[in-house]
């Protein structure tokens, strides 16, 4: 059973111990008070930046969109292959290990670890997404082996050396100060613990494919003489950040104090097919999936990732560090 009320929590601001109050948690050291929201502890420090507040609102307000997207994505061979790849790194931990996920979103990756017998604590800045993750885990029968609380990934509300594993999926690039988050992750990891980064975007496509895509989309709109595509669904952080090159990601993990680091390419042709079909589906207003092509491309992707030059230019990164 995961009990977050005793021993594991600390004040996210001063890292002092927390006392349980009637309405939430109190920090005697700095007099901070943290309430509950929809039955979940809200341990996000007061005075969050405008960008973080925007992310909190976006991922709550657009939750129906992300639910629809996941309903299509989870059947994708590209998605399944590379998510299984980073989850398998965590499955090397001993049975009943305690694992933290930061930026958990809808909770599907955490659910896979729960099914593998692990205990999982999930955090997110969005109450809407976190609430969906909690309901998903409870519906699947994991009320006693999972816990959910609102938290800022740059100010984790956990004591040092308390997790066997930590992972984050496609969320590091959303943070204003990713190295601070990585340092926090290393702080809460036990000696010998493992950190896993999943499907974090590479930066190269922001200078090549995405600008070209915008030009082609605008040309298509002019030719059609009408709007093409739906409502803007990109968060402010996605607009402002660009992912990480191999060198940038290596430097961030080095700066956070990780000593054993392995960066793994996560998708080339299969990723391009997946994202192209996703974009076209949104433009035409109906689902177009090319799953057989994705599946056929995965072995080729694995070969491309072993080539010296191409190893720096996958669509995403998976990483393992300790």
Give the end-to-end Cα distance, rounded to a whole number of Å: 26 Å
What strand order characterises the main sheet?
7-6-5-8-9-11-10
Broad structural category: alpha/beta
Helix and strand element order: EEEEHHHEHEHEEHEHHHEHHE
Indicate the overall shape.
Answer: globular
- Runs in which pLDDT lies below 50 for 5 or more consecutive residues are none
Task: Give the tally of structural domains.
Answer: 1
**Strand percentage:** 15-25%
Task: Kindly describe this structure.
The protein has 322 residues and is an alpha/beta fold. The protein is built from 11 helices and 11 strands. The protein has one domain (50-321): Vaccinia Virus protein VP39 (Rossmann fold). It has a 7-stranded mixed beta sheet with strand order 7-6-5-8-9-11-10, with helices on both faces. Strands 1-2-3-4 form a 4-stranded antiparallel beta sheet, with no helix packed on it. It has helices at 50-61, 63-73, 77-90, 108-115, 127-139, 178-188, 209-224, 236-240, 246-255, 269-284, 291-304; strands at 19-20, 24-26, 33-37, 40-41, 98-102, 119-124, 146-150, 163-169, 189-201, 261-266, 316-321.
Question: What's the short version?
Answer:
With 322 residues, the chain is of the alpha/beta class. Helix content is 40%, strand content 19%.
